[in-house]
Amino acid sequence: MQNLIFSPCLKANVQTKHRTSVFLVANIFSVLSIFVSSISAQPKALFEATPFPEKTRNYDVLHYKIDIRLDFAQEAFFGETTVYFRALQDGLKKIELDAETFRVKDVRGLEGKILKFEYAPSPQHRQGGLQIELGKSLKYDEKAAVTIRYEAIGVKPDPTKFGMSQGYDLGLTFKKATETRKILANTLSFPEGARHWFPCNDTPNDKASQELIAHIPASMKALSNGKLMSNTVKNGIRSVHWKQEKPHSTYLSVLVAGDYAVLHEQYKKVSLGYWVYPKDVSNAMRSFNQTPQIMAFMEELFGTAFPWDKNDQITIPGIGGGAESTGATVLGESTIHDERADPDFPSHWLVAHEAAHQWFGDLITARDWSETWLNESFATFAENDYIRHSLGEKEGQKYRMDKWNGYLQETSTKYTRPIRYRGFTMPNEHFDRHTYHKGSIVLHYLRAVMGKDAFTRSLALFLKRHAFQPATTEDLKDAIKDATGQNLDWFFNQWIDRAGHPILGVQYNWSETDKQLNLRIQQKQTVSDAVPLFELKTHIEVALPHTTKSFPIQISSADSTYILKLHEPSTGRPRIQFDPQMTLPAEVQYDVSETEWRNILQTGSVRDQLLAIAYFGKEFENYASLLQETAQKDPFWAIRQAATQVFVHAPDPNRFADFFRAQLNDVHSRVRVSAVRGLAATKQTIHAPILRTLFANDKSYLVQAEALRALGACGNPSDLPLLEAARTIASPRNVLQTAADEALRILRQN
Question: For residues 147 and 127, what is the distance between their CA atoms, to the nearest angstrom?
């Protein structure tokens, strides 16, 4: 066994503080999202700002009792909500509730006494609207209740006035029947939608228990949070009573009513329900069948049992992803798909993401929206980790790479900001790629820094301490300290409360004479008040003929040099991997020899293999045979696809027509998609017959769609009827219609 000595030599920190900067990432191959960095002053840095204050309140809501009747003919709802609360100060005479959209008819106290109120919804302030005089003075901790009767007839709020995008169904909305489903109604309470269908203290830091009684047509079913207490029918009206006994935040409240079929399953003692349109019953379990193993995975990952009475999932129109609601997650109707769509449009990542919210977001909730990362970064991290767990390490790396590249795109084109940023005024501003994408990668790195067991112990303590409560980043930091003894304030300071990320220049070379590896790592990001010089921990892996050694590296300077020596007889040139598990949230720029690039292409992480393909692609003519071999033989589909895509951008793609046709036999649809793009790049009508055959016979919707697009470049007017017919074929996300439209436009222009 070789004796290895590892000694770091740190150079002085030569990085100078300068103006704030962010980093332009150029997309080398657009379909691959392979990014390299260069300096840009265009995107702005969001760092220091006047914090948007947490809402001041003089009461604490204990319980909501919502009694609501839905009138589908008028697209109206008629509600009576009782708010039970306790005073947070002596002399409390008035409370203010958040209320929008509906008309308040009257307000009464517990004894039925009419109370005075003022109702003036004010979307500019995003809070308040309904001020109620209690008719008496309450002492601190004294309990009271008010009952509000209200109605909304044919009213739909403008989401843009409340910080949401056009078309977002804020509050309670009615959906007209379509060819694939009957009429239904659903709520979207996130992030401040609850106030649009019941009066409440609509902030995440005031958790309360809840019960909901919904009156709907007898032919329908209704789902809400908690346990089903009763379900009765009288005079053609169904009354369904759900009770959420454990406190949660208002944005997690849900009501869906419509014609649903419900599939039941059990996980331990937790009842699972999958609510789908009747037409989707035969396909439903394809999307939901991993729910039990996802829940088991989350319990192990978080060290905490599933915390709620049940776990329902229900599909609705109008959204593309999902919205966590306590024990009753809503998912876009496109979640359900046929067998042929499953390889290209799986739903398990979404089910995993929303399941993770039952712990992070629902069990504990960000105290205010600046702490949103405690909800979304954790859910995205858990989603990523479930992919790694269920599909393998390479798939996990590819998934993380896609998230990282999504963040890089945002930070290069829009802004860079800390993950926890207190300057936004509207809640929805926090739900960006810094929160979802970067935050998830930072958590993956945090686990690597802490160790898996310490990480899980810390999360378990955090969840136990703050169960059914709002929480902050400081609470998480304290849980880590108490569970492991580790003070990771330095980590949170640079990754959560500062902006940017490291750009690492990595150089290494092997000296056969000295049996020595010389490694140099430079931090190339521009350091400023917003963007720090990072303190990083990773490993370098040295592969020898009979063993592989892993050596820790700590990076804390702008320019560091390390020396690794072998003190045994020569065993040949070792293979080197920097950050082999791809844990660093960093851009990596290698400056190594061609030999090392070849090693990286064969044995590196997904990130490093993609960087190697980009390197060889820059000198395409010299390395075409190497790239072609990689495209045909690499065991991982994403690497084969990346290498195939290089040839699509070749100066003369016609030279590689035979190669593209051969790649059409690849087992993975994404590789075949790139091969079709290669044929399209030739713009030769000779390829039209094979494209027509692909459209007719390939099992992948994505390949079919790409074949249609390619006919726009390689087809002729005789393909117009085929393309017109393709527009009418149902497909996931309407990929066939979109592709046919693009091809028709090109053919008609020509």
Answer: 19
Residue 108: CA count within 13 A, CB half-sphere: 11
Instruction: Establish whether the linkage from the previous residue to 502 is cis, with ω within 30° of 0.
Output: no
Average pLDDT per 10 consecutive residues for the chain, totaling 750 residues:
33 28 29 37 78 89 98 98 98 96 95 94 66 97 98 93 92 96 98 96 97 98 98 98 98 98 98 98 98 98 97 96 96 96 97 98 97 98 98 98 97 96 94 98 98 98 98 98 98 97 95 86 96 96 83 94 75 86 97 95 97 96 97 98 97 96 98 98 97 98 98 95 97 96 93
259 vs 277: CA distance, rounded Å: 7
Is 0.90 surpassed by the pTM of this model? yes
Structure tokens at 618: 């820059």
Please state whether beta strands 59-71 and 208-217 pair in parallel, antiparallel, or not at all (unpaired). Answer: parallel
> Across-strand partners of 257?
185, 222
- Give CATH superfamily name and number for 23-51+363-495: Neutral Protease Domain 2 (1.10.390.10)
Residue the block writes with tokens 């039925």: 112
Polymer length in residues for the chain: 750
* 289 touches 311 (CB < 8 A): no
Sequence ranges of the domains in the chain: 1-22+499-618, 23-51+363-495
Provide CB contacts within 8 A for 594, sequence distance 6+: none
Question: What Cα–Cα distance (Å) separates residue 90 from each residue in 94, 132, 143, 301?
Answer: 12, 17, 12, 44
Asked whether the beta carbons of 680 and 708 are under 8 A apart, the reply is no
In degrees and rounded to multiples of 5, residue 710 shows phi and psi of: -65, -30
Q: Which of 743, 735, 668 is nearest to 710 (CA)?
A: 743
In order of 386, 387, 392, 401, 664, the CA distances from 395 in angstroms are 10, 7, 6, 10, 22
Q: Which one-letter DSSP state was computed for residue 51?
A: P
Is there a common fold for 1-22+499-618 and 23-51+363-495? no
Do the Cβ atoms of 509 and 520 come closer than 8 Å?
Answer: no
Per DSSP, 277 falls in state: -
Q: What are residue 77's phi and psi, to 5 degrees?
A: -135, 145
Give the H or E element holding residue 537: strand 536-543
Taking each helix axis from N to C end, the angle separating 606-618 and 393-413, rounded to the nearest 10 degrees, works out to 60
Ramachandran angles phi, psi of 380, nearest 5°: -70, -40
- Which residues, 6+ apart, have CB-to-CB distance to 250 below 8 Å? 64, 189, 194, 195, 200, 201, 202, 203, 204, 206, 208
How far is it, in rounded angstroms, from Cα 327 to Cα 336? Answer: 20
In angstroms, the CA 67 to CA 65 distance is 7
DSSP code string of 354-376: HHHHTTBTTTEEESSGGGTHHHH
3-state secondary structure 687-698: HHHHHHHHHHHC
**Calpha distance 371→472 (Å, rounded):** 6
Q: Are 40 and 24 in contact (CB under 8 A)?
A: yes
When the candidates are 2.30.29.30, 3.40.50.11220, 3.40.30.10, 2.60.40.1840, the CATH number that belongs to 1-22+499-618 is 2.60.40.1840
